Inverse folding.
């Protein structure tokens, strides 16, 4: 699937940068165009792979390149005011070559949290291609203001995009891990999962063709209907088997596929599908009768993939999710030493984390209002004399 990616805000820009690095390393060519948008000049300067001409600094007249300080209402205002500057970078995107737009953002900050819904609405007004969001929820220990921002931005963005793919930091942060190291690891997890998902079907000239092709239309149809999506992933190292099967093939004169046990290959795939769906999803949710649509992608060396395993995995997903729209296929990656299963669950509704986020945000809003009220009263008590004998200058 060919994507035009827009990284909005600090988190969005870093994830976009990591996607571009992944593209270079794997040759998957998923990112057809990349634009990074921010109100903080330093964040844009820290990117390594986004072309310089596609880094857009907005809000210079208001925040002077220093960011919006987690104020997502200001972030939204600036995005509205400077939308023409962003459009200038988007104009260079060869839209006829892309299947969809993907807006990547951290939902807890200021610039991306406020600006990404504005960006999504603007793009949908101009282009016919689908516009998806990839939103990252803040961890619970990041503070009330970030939770409040995330709850408000989530509610807004899910209405503006054709589908919102969500990654929950709270489910992935490790205790005792440094902030920088933790976010680097999380970005790797995001790109690994979505890189395989979006890379399926993008086979270069002369490359291995999938037995059961997953192309961009399968992904688009799975994400159709809007709502919220989550992704599961599981992988297994097959480097030793890959080496031994190659040696056996040379000795016997047969092809590699014949040297592998078909039943073992099938069982491995079905096991990976279960692990992917029941393990750690990007957004934890209950999958039992809880997804409207699903897509299964199996990736790895072609001799470790087979149609029977995919069909069994797809059938199992149908039974688990209660959905009649479960698609599946394979994605041959010959130089990989892993066999992986990626499960996209679209239209999920039983998501306890979202309800928890909303409740915490409501409490945070009430606390902020109380604190502001107390602060105003305390200031008044401080500056006014007890006998009211002093008068202000004006």
């Amino acid at each position: 699937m060919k994507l035009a990616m827009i990284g909005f805000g600090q988190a969005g820009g870093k994830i976009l940068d990591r996607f571009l690095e992944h593209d270079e390393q794997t040759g998957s060519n998923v990112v057809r165009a990349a634009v990074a948008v921010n109100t903080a000049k330093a964040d844009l300067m820290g990117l390594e792979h986004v072309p310089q001409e596609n880094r857009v600094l907005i809000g210079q007249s208001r925040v002077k390149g220093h960011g919006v300080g987690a104020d997502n209402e200001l972030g939204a205002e600036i995005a509205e005011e400077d939308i023409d500057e962003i459009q200038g970078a988007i104009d260079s995107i060869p839209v006829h070559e892309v299947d969809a737009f993907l807006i990547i953002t951290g939902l807890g900050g200021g610039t991306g949290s406020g600006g990404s819904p504005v960006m999504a609405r603007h793009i949908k007004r101009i282009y016919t291609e689908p516009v998806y969001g990839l939103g990252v929820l803040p961890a619970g220990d990041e503070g009330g203001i970030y939770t409040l921002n995330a709850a408000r931005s989530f509610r807004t963005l899910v209405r503006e995009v054709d589908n919102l793919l969500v990654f929950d930091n709270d489910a992935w942060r490790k205790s005792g891990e440094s902030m920088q190291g933790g976010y680097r690891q999380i970005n790797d997890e995001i790109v690994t999962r979505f890189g395989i998902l979006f890379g399926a079907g993008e086979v270069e000239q002369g490359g291995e063709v999938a037995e059961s092709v997953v192309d961009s239309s399968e992904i688009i149809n799975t994400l159709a209907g809007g709502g919220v999506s989550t992704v599961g992933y599981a992988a297994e190292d097959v480097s030793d088997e890959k080496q031994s099967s190659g040696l056996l093939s040379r000795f016997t004169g047969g092809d590699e596929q014949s040297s592998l046990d078909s039943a073992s290959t099938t069982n491995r795939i079905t096991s990976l599908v279960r692990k992917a769906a029941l393990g750690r999803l990007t957004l934890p949710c209950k999958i039992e009768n809880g997804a409207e649509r699903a897509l299964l992608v199996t990736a790895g060396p072609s001799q470790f993939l087979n149609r029977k395993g995919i069909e069994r995995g797809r059938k199992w997903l149908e039974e688990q999710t209660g959905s009649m729209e479960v698609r599946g296929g394979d994605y041959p990656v010959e130089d990989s030493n892993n066999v992986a299963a990626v499960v996209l669950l679209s239209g999920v509704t039983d998501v306890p984390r979202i309800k928890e986020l909303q409740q915490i945000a409501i409490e945070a809003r009430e606390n902020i209002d109380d604190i502001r009220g107390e602060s105003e009263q305390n200031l008044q008590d401080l500056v006014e004399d007890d006998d009211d004998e002093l008068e202000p200058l004006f």
